[in-house]
Design a protein that fits this description.
This protein is α/β, with parallel strands linked by helices. It is built from eight helices and eleven strands.
């Protein structure tokens, strides 16, 4: 999943980004509200973590502008402002959640999982396709009862596919979701990671779940 972090405290911004990347997220970082709004209008993010007190445009202003534009990206406010009035204002403007500094990274990642789960209308963080299961809370992948070990990038790609099972995802959409603005490669890297996944997810089994749709992209089919 692709996450935007908007936090003007550089050290905290860096630490959050490092933690989320280690969890397999694609992360873009910015340090003021105007830059955050620009990023959120230019790319599709699964969630945004916004500080409230930012230069140029505060978090409230970012959320207000997003919702006025019809952009429904889930927003988690990360802030030291913990009064009930502050929370109510943020939620009324269209924020989805609120986490007060100092915070636990375990709680941050758990709340992000809830936000993204709610956004796609899933009641749980456990996804299935045929005999394949992916538990986004434990990051455990199993097929036909066998545990499958994946790298962080392989896992991120599989999670994207299974969250969108039976839908064709173009290489461009996959690249946008899994690689950040700093990525300078080409869409052929998608083909490479699809091959890696197929070796682990499909080749040991009779039923193939990952399919190429010629001229369109890739799809994970529920029934193979």
């Amino acid at each position: 999943m692709r996450i935007l972090i908007a936090e003007d405290e550089a050290d905290l911004n860096r630490v959050i980004a490092k933690k989320l990347k280690s969890e397999g997220y694609s992360v873009d970082c910015c340090f003021d509200g105007e830059e955050a709004l620009h990023c959120l209008c230019m790319a599709r993010y699964d969630a945004a973590v916004l500080d409230i007190m930012m230069p140029r445009l505060d978090g409230y202003g970012v959320v207000r502008a997003l919702r006025e534009r019809g952009i429904a990206t889930p927003v988690l406010f990360l802030t030291a402002r913990d009064t009930v009035e502050d929370k109510v204002r943020g939620l009324d403007l269209g924020a989805n959640d609120y986490l007060v500094k100092p915070f636990s990274f375990l709680e941050l990642t758990a709340r992000l999982r809830v936000l993204t789960r709610t956004a796609i209308g899933s009641p749980t963080n456990r996804f299935t396709a045929g005999d394949l299961t992916l538990d986004a809370d434990s990051r455990l992948v199993r097929r036909a009862g066998q545990t499958i070990q994946l790298t962080a990038r392989e896992y991120a790609l599989l999670e994207l596919l299974i969250r969108n099972k039976n839908r064709v995802l173009s290489r461009e959409v996959i690249e946008e979701k899994l690689w950040n603005f700093d990525y300078e490669g080409g869409t052929n890297v998608i083909d490479v990671y699809i091959r890696y996944l197929r070796r682990k997810i499909d080749e040991p089994f009779d039923t193939k779940l990952i399919h190429t749709v010629r001229g369109a992209g890739y799809m994970l089919r529920d029934e193979g």
